[in-house]
Amino acid sequence: MSRDFAPSVLTANDLFEGDVVYFTATGDWSRQHTDALLFTDQQEAAEALAAAQAQPERFVGPYLALAHSGLNGPEPAHFREAFRARGPSNYRHGKQPMGMC
Amino acid sequence: MYTYSEFDHDFLKTRNAQFRAQVERRISGALTEDEFKPLRLMNGLYLQLHAYMLRVAIPYGTLNSAQMRQLADISERWDKGYGHFTTRQNIQFNWPRLRDVPDMLDALAEVGMHAIQTSGNCVRNVTADHFAGASADEIADPRPVAELLRQWSTDHPEFQFLPRKFKIAITGSPNDRAVTRAHDIGLRMVRQGDAQGFEVIVGGGLGRTPVIGKVISDFVPEQDLLPYIEAILSTYNSFGRRDNKYKARIKIMVNELGLDEVRARVDRRFATLRAEWSGADRAILRDLRESFAPPAFRTAPTEGYDVAYRHDPVFRSFADTNLAAHRHPDYAIVTISLKAHGATPGDATAEQMRLMADLAAQYGHDELRISHEQNVILPHVHKSDLPHIHAALQSAGLATANIGLISDIIACPGMDYCALATARSIPVAQEIAQAFRARELDIGAMKIKISGCINACGHHHVGHIGILGLDRAGVENYQITLGGDGTETAALGERAGPGFAYDQIVPAIDRLICAYLDLRVDAQESFIAAFRRLGPKPFKDALYQTGGRADAA
Hints:
The structure holds 2 protein chains of 2 kinds.
Chain A: E1 8-14, E2 20-23, E3 29-30, H1 42-53, E4 59-70, E5 73-76, H2 79-86
Antiparallel strand pairs in A: 1-2, 1-4, 2-3, 4-5
Chain B: H1 6-28, H2 33-41, E1 45-47, E2 52-57, E3 62-63, H3 65-78, E4 82-85, E5 90-93, H4 101-110, E6 127-128, H5 143-153, E7 168-171, E8 185-192, E9 195-202, E10 214-221, H6 225-239, H7 250-257, H8 259-276, H9 280-291, H10 303-311, H11 313-322, E11 323-325, E12 331-336, E13 347-349, H12 350-363, E14 368-370, E15 376-382, H13 386-395, E16 410-411, H14 426-435, H15 440-443, E17 448-451, E18 465-472, E19 475-482, E20 494-495, E21 500-501, H16 505-519, H17 527-534, H18 537-544
Parallel strand pairs in B: 6-7, 7-8, 16-17, 17-18
Antiparallel strand pairs in B: 1-2, 2-5, 3-14, 4-5, 4-13, 8-9, 9-10, 11-12, 12-15, 14-15, 18-19, 19-20, 19-21
Helix pairs in contact in B: 1-2, 1-4, 3-4, 3-12, 5-9, 6-8, 7-8, 10-11, 14-16, 16-18
InterPro entries (chain B): NIR_SIR_4Fe-4S, NiRdtase/SiRdtase_haem-b_fer, Nit/Sulf_reduc_fer-like_dom_sf, NO2/SO3_Rdtase_4Fe4S_dom, NO2/SO3_Rdtase_4Fe4S_sf
Keywords (chain B): 4Fe-4S, Heme, Iron, Iron-sulfur, Metal-binding, Oxidoreductase
Domain Nitrite/Sulfite reductase ferredoxin-like (chain B): 52-111, 342-395
């Protein structure tokens, strides 16, 4: 791992739906945080981010979000990312109906 | 109410066609997000935490039953079957898909609604007293002036790229229900002899730098109002700061230049502008006044109301809490609470919107209002119809009798939806409403306002108890302010001390309320009155008596 780089996932909003998506180990994108590829190498993360930024017809605002390894895959390191991964707390909208939380 | 002209309809049609083409170009990749973002924001379309959000203007909070029904239909067809009414008399749809938004805008245009200038550094939706044209305490109906301001400011070429967003509120009553002192310009209708005019307040606002607005003129005659406001906007456009987003609001300009200097610059600009105004605005205002003429109030017995009031305690509780005095003694203003205990403040389902539309059509002269406190109002209801209305509201879960009580909380969407938020607001409001449900009548008049970030969309600075959600070292933390007031006696709340963790905020509010109940002279002394009499110390002592889990913020 790079000296100053903390494990992160690559995330963005889908252009069409607006919802949160994550870059996966297969090079595809998933709606589910646990499917995300946990980058531990800064160079690989930067390259994936640049690739996402080069696809403005699919994604909006890609960025690297801190995460850590969990039992079922990467887990968000900050509560904001946890809410993005889960959906709002007042309705089972967003990710909840998809069984993603 | 105002009916859109052919010109208005053509304008919206053209504008929507332009946006449809812009969306297509974004989807095709012809526009980058950087190019598209300002275009979508000009049409009220944000990208929030989980989805797009479309913010629709409800000018001065007034709409008719057809418009409310259309909002319901839009929420079902293109969203998730509900809408969120905001503190600026807008409605927000939280889940539209990008490709659907042009169709949503076309549907809105069918009933004379739009999302123009609900975002961007321009004059935002002009807000007004939600009891306008109905209230017993009113000097004059402010809505014709609000509509004049809307027409003047919409697509005004000089004011599309102001230093920052610009908010105007207007009231026609000495009792300020429009929070005029917390707006960039606040207008209060006043009379001098036979002359109708306005007290003009500038430089109010909440957010990062909360400021109570200052009176720049205690009387601007009605015929001078629009050129005078244009002079203020023009001065702000010229001298407002653009180097720092956080110092770009007019309140900072007023603070840095001083009110006297701002007044002098506005007066100079006004002297030039006044001569350029031909009087067309006066003619338009005369026509607008006809559009807003009071409905034909009917004369009929009110015994039905009196009987229900005497014999039905549930109805009596509703009447005592949710009705306000109407200008006509046989009528009442009904506030429909969108704050059922445990519900999301400001949310209404499509079914609820349709019911409210039906009630407005059948009993309310086809008028509805949205309040900045995120409730819905039927402004003109004959008292004899109130028992029927109450029964209908009960059937739809809309009869909560809590207007002005502790569960009638303003709460911004917070981090459950908003990309800017630093903590959640909605679940805090839900838990407070549930926790105090049994005691709220005893607690009495109480304004709790919650914001999920420093931008203060939940007006926490002017809450009797304000709650500000922040991110402290990666966890949600809530600061409390005390003694705020958004009315004609406006005041900013003062920060009580260190913040509280999420699971400690309701117990902290409980200690505060218990202290108030112990300290008040009697049940007639409200929380804010007790706070003003006693000062903050006993309330701060109560908040921190346990040591709690207060942080070191």
